[in-house]
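Before drawing any conclusions, I looked closely at one protein's amino acid sequence and its backbone structure tokens, quoted below without any editing.
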Amino acid sequence: MSTITGASVVDTVDQGGPPAGGGSTGRLGDRLMAGAAKGAGILVIGLVVLVGAFLLSRAAPALAANQANFVTTRVFSVDGGTLRFGIVDLLWVTVLSSVIAMALAVPVAIGVALFITQYAPRRLATPAAYLIDLLAAVPSIVYGLWGAKVLLQPYREHVQDPLAHALGWIPLFRSTSVSAGTILLVSIVLAIMILPIITALSREVFAQTPVAHKEGALALGATRWEMIRTAVLPFGRPGVISASMLGLGRALGETIAVTIILSTLPGGAPWSFSVFNGGETFASRIANNAAEFDTPAKTGAFIAAGLVLFLLTFAVNAVARIVIERRKAFTE
């Protein structure tokens, strides 16, 4: 009978373990996977840098020839030989419509995600999740046509007119002469468009809450809602923030639906802070005036607007990443 000494066991383990110094195990699959992951990360970073460099190079000549303040001017005129364009109106409409859409969509998305993962029985939760996810498959142009042709009249009767009558003394809800699509109507449609994105990601995060955390809260006498508030929501907060920022990026860059719904203010029309006013976002301005891209100067002016939207979206995602990292450090 052969015996295995302690030294031979140690030798066997050492021979099959990783090499000294913490290096690679030498397996081909590990090296390929690590290389592919690193290459994908470098590729994405490179694409972002290239897009930013392209926008900056095309926008710089137009910005140098601009006869107005790019940050504070409300005029956006590229006709003729003189360029006078600014982004203050575009920035206001873009940010306001997206923020309102987020304020409407995020609470509903969190509620739906909690209902599907914590309250609904499986026979109801599965089809409900599928139905919510199907909203993401609806094309943007369908949302735009629905908002402009179906939702407009009920919105004016049951939302805009009552709010303007009750809160018209506030500049944000002051009545205007715009009779078609307004910023608030666009925000409602955008909220419906980003709802499935935020719901789906929040649902997946809430479903990953450790069972021990939930059972521990219930064992201590917590109600279902108290368990959700103390165990599920804190665990899922970073994921909800990520999902919300992803939805915000979709709202900021939406083009077709906004172009169809939002009323374009004619030149010289009065501008106000009201959500019942019209206007244009960065994306809709570029889409509405694509036919004017006939000279490098005109094209550069619109590319400059696109550069601002690119930087705005980048800043939103950077802030979200910082918030998530701080939450992780706090919870750890």
